[in-house]
Structure to design on (315 residues):
C-alpha cells in the first residue's frame, strides 16, 4: 500500500534474462503486486522470474504464447490490474531503465487526485542530452511534437517514456483491446486518454542508460511507422472528441487548413522559383497562391490554438 492505495507494478519483459532480476529485487516494499509479462522470450527470462517467485510472493507471472510486442505485454498487465481492482498501476520496463526512486514522485499526484495519468519525463534534467543516445533524443523530439498534435496534450513531452502511473478508473474506461501492441503504445494511450478527457501530467524522472540494456528499437523505422500511426490517431481523435462526443468548429479549421495550406505553400514555392530563375509570373497566379497559403496556415494555427484551449484544464 502506498498512502492507502493498492499499487501494482507492471513489467513487460522480452529476452531480459540479464536485467529482470534487478527489476524484481529493487521494487519498493510499498508495491503490493508485481505483474511480470514474459512475451514469449527465447532466453531464460521465464526461469529467472519463476526462481524469484519463491522469494517474493508479490510476483504474478504471466507468459504469452506468442510475442505480441511491448504494448501487448502492458495491456495484459493492465487487464490483470483492472480485474483485481488495483487503485494505481505503474509500468516499469523489464530492463531496469526505470529508477524505483522516482516511483513515489509518479504516484503522489495520482494518489492526491490531481491527475489520472502521471508520466515520467526524462528531458527535464539537464543531463538528458548527455545520457540519452543522440539519435534517440532527436527521434523522441520529433515523435513528442507529433504526439502533442495527435493527442491534444500540448503540455506533455517525452512521449516515448513508458514509465507512467494510471488510475483504475482510466483502465476501466478505455477499451484495452484496441490499444496498439508495439512501440507506439504510449502514444496511442495518450490519444485515448484525451478522448475521455482524462488529466495527464509529466513528472521528472531520471534517464537510465548504459546498464547493459539492449534496445529493440530501430529508430528510423519506428519514427516512420509511428508518424503514420499518429496521423491516423489524430483524425480518429478529432472525430471522436469534436464530432461524436461534442462539437467544436476547430475540426473545420483543421480540414480547411490541411486542404488550403499545402496547395498554397507548394504553388507559392513553385512561383518563387519560376520568378527567380525563369521569368515573370502572372499576378493572378501569385494572388491565388498567397490567398491559399495565408488562409490555409491561419486556419491550421487557429485549429491548434482552439485544441490547446479546449485541453488546457486536462493536467
Ligand atoms: N512484452 C514485450 N516486451 C517487450 C518487447 N520488446 C521490448 N519489450 C520490453 O519493453 C521494455 C522497453 O523496451 P526497449 O527495447 O528496451 O525500449 P527502449 O528502452 O525504449 O529502448 C523492456 O522492458 C523490454 O523487455 C516485446 O516484444 N514484448
Ligand atoms: Mg530499454
Amino acid at each position: 500500500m502506498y498512502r492507502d492505495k493498492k499499487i501494482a507494478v507492471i513489467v513487460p519483459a522480452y529476452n531480459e534474462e540479464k536485467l529482470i532480476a534487478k527489476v524484481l529485487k529493487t521494487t519498493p516494499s510499498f508495491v503490493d503486486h508485481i505483474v511480470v509479462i514474459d512475451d514469449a522470450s527465447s532466453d531464460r527470462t521465464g526461469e529467472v522470474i519463476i526462481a524469484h517467485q519463491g522469494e517474493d510472493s508479490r510476483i504474478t507471472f504471466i507468459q504469452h504464447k506468442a510475442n505480441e510486442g511491448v504494448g501487448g505485454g502492458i495491456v495484459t498487465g493492465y487487464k490483470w490490474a483492472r480485474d483485481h481492482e488495483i487503485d494505481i498501476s505503474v509500468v516499469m520496463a523489464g530492463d531496469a531503465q526505470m529508477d524505483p526512486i522516482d516511483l513515489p514522485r509518479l504516484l503522489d499526484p495520482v494518489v492526491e487526485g490531481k491527475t489520472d495519468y502521471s508520466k515520467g519525463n526524462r528531458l527535464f534534467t539537464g543531463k538528458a542530452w548527455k545520457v540519452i543516445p543522440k539519435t534517440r533524443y532527436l527521434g523522441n523530439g520529433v515523435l513528442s511534437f507529433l504526439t502533442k498534435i495527435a493527442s491534444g496534450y500540448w503540455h506533455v513531452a517525452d512521449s516515448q517514456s513508458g514509465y507512467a502511473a494510471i488510475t483504475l478508473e482510466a483502465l476501466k474506461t478505455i477499451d484495452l483491446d484496441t490499444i496498439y501492441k508495439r512501440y507506439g503504445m504510449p502514444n496511442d494511450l495518450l490519444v485515448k486518454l484525451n478522448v475521455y478527457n482524462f488529466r495527464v501530467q509529466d513528472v521528472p524522472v531520471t534517464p537510465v542508460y548504459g546498464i547493459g540494456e539492449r534496445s529493440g528499437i530501430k529508430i528510423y523505422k519506428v519514427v516512420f511507422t509511428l508518424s503514420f500511426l499518429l496521423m491516423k490517431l489524430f483524425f480518429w481523435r478529432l472525430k471522436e472528441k469534436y464530432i461524436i462526443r461534442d462539437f467544436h468548429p476547430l475540426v473545420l479549421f483543421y480540414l480547411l487548413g490541411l486542404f488550403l495550406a499545402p496547395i498554397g505553400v507548394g504553388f507559392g514555392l513553385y512561383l518563387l522559383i519560376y520568378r527567380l530563375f525563369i521569368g515573370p509570373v502572372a499576378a493572378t497566379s501569385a494572388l491565388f497562391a498567397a490567398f491559399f497559403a495565408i488562409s490555409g496556415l491561419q486556419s491550421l494555427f487557429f485549429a491548434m490554438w482552439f485544441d490547446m484551449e479546449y485541453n488546457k484544464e486536462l493536467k
